[in-house]
Design brief:
Length: 357
Amino acid sequence: MNWDDTTDTDATGERLVGPVADHEDQAVEAALRPKDLGEFIGQEKVREQLDLVLRAARARGATADHVLLSGAPGLGKTTLSMIIAAEMEAPIRITSGPAIQHAGDLAAILSSLQEGEVLFLDEIHRMSRPAEEMLYMAMEDFRVDVIVGKGPGATAIPLELPPFTLVGATTRAGLLPPPLRDRFGFTAHMEFYEPAELERVVHRSASLLDVEIDTDGAAEIAGRSRGTPRIANRLLRRVRDYAQVKADGRITRDIAAAALAVYEVDARGLDRLDRSVLEALLKLFGGGPVGLSTLAVAVGEERETVEEVAEPFLVREGLLARTPRGRVATPAAWAHLGLAPPRSQTPGNGQGDLFGT
């Protein structure tokens, strides 16, 4: 199946409800991004704890402890890193784990840091092992050993670093080795947002974008945003476009619902790929259990796409369950698609052995 012809994508070809930022998202987020903790919406516990860490550091006249932020894409990890720099009145350097493939890459960045500077390292779990081991000493002792030469004649030259704050962000905290996690003075997990919090995000973004929106319209967008501010802002922009072309520019519940119907984002935030997975599971395999590879073939997608793109949200919504015998639809999945489950789904009917796990 070719997804290029579907309407559940934006102008860049990415999924409209995908949590990963595209170039348009990055440009808009820069304009919408809150500048301090007081403006930041949601993540109440994280904000309270981080505020204490930063205020204490400022009172001591010291550099803030290293901070590790984990959670799904689009929840505000980059925004918080910039807020940390702003609160500490320090410059920020932004890089990512995949960009640091050699210890020398990291040494070059660390050696150019200013005192008190914030180094934001996105997707820190994807950094190379040699660079990771160099980072241990840099975080703890503010020192790195630069190796000059090779073989028996190689010499380690110690390089002193000014105190700095490392802010690491990861979507997969379990992949971080314990020695690295232990060197962060403050760790926080970013939770998905509640609809009421996303409504506040939508109202704030609409105000900054000079878009007129009522309470019901904001609630409609928030309810389809999969608990993610980035998706809420992206849906707001697409609804804004629809309202400008098809209506008077004002976003109401009916306008929001009509716009998102065009982009095939339903009332629970499922898009065409999500529904294709559910429909295949229900209609072709009677609700399962069915193996992941078989399910991927049935929807014309790669196994990794189904497992990493569609499944996490379906599981979180209680529409799909992963079992040792394969993927199984829940009663909520049948109800969501308006289908009646088979009269009997006996667990021991051999389906798991037929389709694999």
